[in-house]
Amino acid sequence: MDKEPLVIFWFRRDLRIADNTALYHALKSGVQVLPLFIFDSDILDKLHNPADARVTFIYQEIEKLKTQLEEKHHSSLLIKHGKPNDVWANLLKSYNIKSVYCNHDYEPEAIERDEAVKQLLHKNFVSFLSFKDQCIFEKEEILKDDGEPYVVFTPYKRKWLAKLKPFYYKAYPTKKYEQHFYKTKALNLPSLKQIGFEKSTLDFPNQHYQSVLRDYAQKRDYPALDATSHISLHLRFGTLSIRELVSTAVQEKSEVWLGELIWRDFYFSILYHYPHSAKDAFRKEYDHIKWRNNEKEFEAWCAGKTGYPMVDAGMRQLNETGFMHNRVRMVVASFLSKHLLIDWRWGERYFAEKLLDYELSSNVGGWQWAAGSGVDAAPYFRIFNPEEQLKKFDKNLEYVRRWIAEYDDPFKYPKPIVDHKEARERCLRVYKEALASK
Predict the structure, then answer these.
(1) CATH class of 1-132
(2) What digits encode the pLDDT tens for the residues 81-114?
(3) Is 301 a catalytic residue?
(4) pLDDT given for residue 226 in this prediction
(5) Which listed CATH number (1.25.40.80, 1.20.1250.20, 1.10.580.10, 3.40.50.10140) goes with 134-171+210-273?
(6) Quick check: is 346 catalytic?
(7) Is 403 among the residues known to form the active site?
(8) Which of 178, 252, 291, 385 is catalytic?
(9) DSSP code of 149?
(10) Residue 245 and residue 263: Cα distance in Å, rounded?
(11) pLDDT tens for each residue of 150-171
């Protein structure tokens, strides 16, 4: 057993050394810091695709971190694969751990995981220290005057902006204390195959987002322009700091883009305060909706073969690239839950499998917004007309033709699987019945 006392910093969804809150505090503690990453089998075992692109992305970022630690700091990255509690039980036998540092996670299962690890560590007289890192404001930092959490975005945003000061987006100067990384030889990195996966062939977006900010407000709704930042993957896994992005938004006076970052904090807050909304309707009366859940129609939606071009282009983009434009996400989600009357959870789960930037809080929030069952939701009687959305946001059909090769061939491109007018009337009737029965 290595008797030398040390601190372990646990990388999770914060895969960077610079401006990392908990890593900064760990290094500043003055005790040598050994970084750790756990390929969590509780999470990985739920993934059906052995070439899941997110695992490849994480693996590549872990490789970069390991190289950075070895070449610049004569340290390394301890990499384990298994259930977190089992991993920690073994680490306690192998190292003289004084404390464990990590950053908060707000998902219900992650909170349970952290509580179990914390209890295990405390039984072994090891402190567990967790910090805010993946958002600007969290938990009880933005509340209504009566102390209750906001469930409507606009007043939440007003208070968020009123509270924002440079202090909140100032970078943590990790570099000042990097001499405290634990000095060790290069540690082992298991192969993707050893953890049960294979390399994905999907491309990942880079971290260059500044160029879109100037015209973001004017162009962001038009999917053919590709005028969004594509930064959500890096935010999801923490390869970029939220503080850097907010600082840039403030400097560039990109208010609309900043608003999108505030939505992210808002959905973190909702999930934290109302964990039931991860699996059930936030507005419980919407759990009474009698979904049709037609499996053939769901398969057509998944494959991008509904006969509604904007829906189909979006789904094909998702299936091929792991990305879908946000305007199109709203259209396809509304179509599934309202035109087809398929439970929003089916769509949420499909997105969870396919999206590179999948974020439970934002994804559930977006789906419930579309279905009318969430916080700050679109009223149930507001039903997107996919044809009108197409005319408004892709009138020249550039986006549609990019993703639907057979669009101009009437013998190959399918006819609409539902009639918009009939589907709308059916949706209104079913929703009214559900809400009347509560």
Answers:
(1) alpha beta
(2) 999 999 999 999 999 999 999 999 999 999 999 9
(3) no
(4) 87
(5) 1.25.40.80
(6) no
(7) no
(8) 291
(9) B
(10) 14
(11) 999 999 999 999 999 999 999 9
